Every structure is written in C-alpha cells, then in structure tokens.
Amino acid sequence: MGKRVSVQRGHIPVLVGEGKELQRVLVHRQVLQHPYFTGLLELAAMEFGHDQKGVLRIPCDVKCFHTIVQLIRSSTRRKKVTISSLFFP
Questions:
Q1: Torsion angle, alpha carbons of 37, 12, 9, 36, to 10
Q2: Extended strands (E) in the chain
Q3: Burial degree of 15 (CB within 10 A; 0-12, 13-18, 19+)
C-alpha cells in the first residue's frame, strides 16, 4: 500500500504530467474554480473520461501546469492570456 500523506485544509492533490513524467501537486480549491483550470479539467475529461478513480490526473506538461497556476494566482496580470495560447503558440 502507498504511504499516506496529509493534505493541508483547502487543498486538493492532483497528478500532473504526460506519460511517465508525473508529479503530485497540491492545488488550492480556489484555483479549481478559475476558467484556466476548467480548461485543464476538460483536457483530463477528454483523456480519461469523467469517472476517474483515485487522485485527479491532469494530462499537461508539468512546467505548463505550474505556469497556468501562477497565472491564476497573479491578480496583477495585464496581458490577457488564453489557455489555448499556452498549448498552441
């Protein structure tokens, strides 16, 4: 069995990555409500369906994922960035 790790209140663990490159990331629940993150959830639904078991897996490059989360956290961002421009420059 896997080792249990406590998760801070208000955070959700997700597995991020493609192929064998997976990273466990704790995401604050408020990030989940942002439209950029909704795009990531849509990617997960297309890849794995709506009935994933266990930890939510996001099929996204780890570096790109952290960039998206950073954009969500940034409240002073002036340039409008769309999620499609992050994946398809």
A1: 0
A2: 11-18, 21-28, 56-58
A3: middle
